[in-house]
Amino acid sequence: MPKAVVKFGGSNLKCKEDIGRIIQVVKNYKEPVVIVVSAFYGITNFLIDSLDKARHDELVAKNTTAYLLQLKKETLELQIQDQNLIDKILSDIGFQLDELERYLHGIALTGDASAALEDHVLAYGEKISAVFLTAILNNAGIEAQVAFPESIGLITDGEFGTASVDFVKSTSKVRESLGQEVIYVVPGFYGISTDGKTTLFGRGGSDYSAAAIARCIGAPSLDIWKDVNGFLSADPKTVDNPVQIQKLSYNEAAELAYFGAKILHPRTVEPLSAPHIPIRIFNIYGDSDVSKPLSVVSAEKIVTKGIVKSVTYSEDFGILKLKGSGVGAKPGILAKVTTALHLAGINISSVLTSQISINILLSKKDLSTAYALVSAIELSVVGRVQIIEDIAVVAAVGNGIAENYGVAARIFTALAKNGINVLMSCSGASPIVSYFLVGINDRIPAVKAIHHEFFETINPL
Fold first, then answer.
1. What's the mean pLDDT in 358-363?
2. pLDDT tier, 428 (very low <50, low <70, confident <90, very high otherwise)
3. Cut 0.70: pTM above it
């Protein structure tokens, strides 16, 4: 039977007690699994900062690796008593750190780093985690071996920063490489292009790594261990009594992730929906019983009584607005704009148009570039190009939203009762989500209002 794939994230790797919990979870599986691991908590951000500083300071390379080595040394000394074993593990980690130091030193000499070099450097957080965790498991009597993406043949499309796995080229090699009856520990976050270059899957991309490996080996499930109680009706930091969601469809999980829920990387379901491999969510700070997931994402589509399963928000979007008396009717305007954005590698999240306005929803990080590009295009009927940043997107997600009358009315009534103005809205782009834009200061009150309407009152459709 194929192995389950088990993902541990950075939030599972914060302190000594976390390592003990991971060991216990792995033991509870009773059979070999494939573990995909993220960088230790905060390490990716640390490496991003080091990349930036290394462009201007030659000392950064040595200081970065010295810090990482000391960090791992302190953690190992809390877990292992045998000093000879500690020295052996530090030597293995040191091999990775020596490579990292050489790359950072090269950046210092040139004053710059290519996209390829940035991807390569940032992958070291996961590489070090994998070497570390493999050693810890072996010390606990669990036979494990590290398996780097470059050695197992996890081949990508070669796009730096936002790569995708090429399953035609990867599946057979990955399945063969992970076929022995041992536990494998794979660093997440990256794969390898056909010419051997490290390519990242994007921030939070270790979830996608795990999903891709699960597809390649035909895993019975992808088990993701988090520090929260699975999918909920809203973020517990936002509402007082969120409801646990035991079952979601792939599309519901994807939409929730896209619109701000932090349980999964938005692309996690991509490799798994076609082969119908379920995603099981556990809380490592709760019950470590591997047969009792808190939430399960699968092909099963369940319509709940209230239709809405969860409400979430994202501050990551902004609007590029094109204003003019005939922009909505003039042929070719939108085509010129979207072509320019596409050629610049800018993803368009949504487009809402009217006779006098075209509103393009983009990631906030792309707004300035998009504004410059569009402003430079000859668009005769566009009188003004404008950026709107002080907004948030609030989304209500659930199977049946598009097919059931009254859901949108309840959402807008709840917002109106709380004095929340909707700047723009969209229903129907996806059959399972209704989303709308509000002022940035209204994002949490909006979530609270909708959550209260659907989960805290007796108000059936």
1. 92
2. low
3. yes
Residues 15-50: pLDDT tens digits?
Answer: 667 888 999 999 999 999 999 999 988 899 999 999
Residue 358 structure tokens: 């075209």
Residues 189 and 211: their CA atoms lie apart, in Å, by 11
**Can you tell me the distance from the alpha carbon of 416 to that of 426, in angstroms, rounded to the nearest whole number?**
17
Q: Are strands 183-187 and 144-146 parallel, antiparallel or unpaired?
A: parallel
Measure the CA–CA gap between 362 and 411, rounded to whole angstroms. 24
Alpha-carbon distance of 220 to 4, in angstroms, equals: 6
Distances (CA, A) of 89 to 65, 178, 259, 322: 15, 23, 41, 58
Q: Kindly give the pairing relationship between strand 34-37 and strand 5-8.
A: parallel
Pull the structure tokens for residue 108: 């210092």
Mean pLDDT of 364-389: 90
Over 90: is that where the pLDDT of 316 sits?
yes
Residue type, 152: I
**In the structure encoding, which two tokens stand for residue 61, read together?**
């390379």
Q: Are 451 and 234 in contact (CB under 8 A)?
A: yes
Domains of the chain plus CATH, in order, are 5-298 (3.40.1160.10), 311-455 (3.30.2130.10)
Query: Measured between alpha carbons, how far apart are the two ends of the chain, in Å?
Result: 45
Q: Retrieve residue 435's tokens.
A: 């989303």
Q: Within a 10 A sphere around the Cβ of 295, how many other Cβ atoms?
A: 24
- Quick check: 119 pLDDT over 90? yes
Q: 270: helix, coil or strand? A: helix
- One-letter identity of residue 415: L
Q: Nearest to residue 183, comparing CAs of 230, 224, 145? A: 145
- What pLDDT score was predicted for residue 461? 42
Integer Cα distance of 184 and 144 in angstroms: 6
Q: Cα(217)–Cα(353) distance, rounded to whole angstroms?
A: 44
Q: What percent of the chain has pLDDT over 90?
A: 68
Residues near 111 by beta carbon (within 8 Å), at least 6 away in sequence: 55, 56
How far, in whole angstroms, is CA 416 from its chain's centroid? 33
pLDDT tens digits for 332-358? Answer: 888 889 999 999 989 998 888 888 888
Are 333 and 380 a contacting pair, CB within 8 Å?
A: no
Angle 156-159-162 (CA atoms, 0-180°, nearest 5)? 95
Asked if residue 313 lies in contact with residue 250, where contact means CB atoms within 8 angstroms, the answer is: no
**Amino acid in position 401:** I
- Residue 458: per-residue pLDDT: 59
